[in-house]
User: What shape does this take?
Amino acid sequence: MVNWSRNILILIIVTIAVTLPQTHAQTPPALSLTLIGQVGPQYVTPAGQTTELKLEIVNMAPPRILLLQGEAYLEPNLNGTWQLIHAESMGSFSLTYLESAIWTFNLAMPSYIRAANVTNDVPQVDLLIRVHYQVVDGPQRADQREFLLGVPGATLQAPNNQIWFALAGIIVVVTFAVVYGVMKRRRRG
Assistant: This one.
């Protein structure tokens, strides 16, 4: 029984070793997305104003790709729903291995936007940028990345009071159960 187990284990290891180099040789294309022109520790995009952003797009894989469209999303209400705030065609711009492109676009930050946290006295929100592209003679794909934006003038998210109410309720129930248990033991004793 031990010989069969060892032989099966050896067969699995040999199979993985033989297929592993082929798997790594066929890496799917990927883009590197980086916002450039950062000022200080964060990108500053004031609420209610339009800010010009520049995104560097680098092709990290050998095949030639065509950049199709860029999209920018925000989550202005911090409720898990991303909203498309800017979309722009990239005109099938050709990008080959290690060649980069700069996508410059105007980001119109809404007037009313809530922020989850504050860094250096500036409220912060997340920006999601998605770039759609196509490998020449291949399927359409998309890469995306989130960036932290400093948004002066944003409203800070109010603390969630429901958590405190739930915690207080649990404490009251536990306290009541302990007091009831102690009183029940005194009646018996």
Observations:
- The chain has one domain: 29-163.
- Residues 29-163 form a domain with the Immunoglobulin-like fold (CATH 2.60.40.10).
- Residues 22-26 have pLDDT under 50 and may be disordered.
- The radius of gyration is 27 Å.
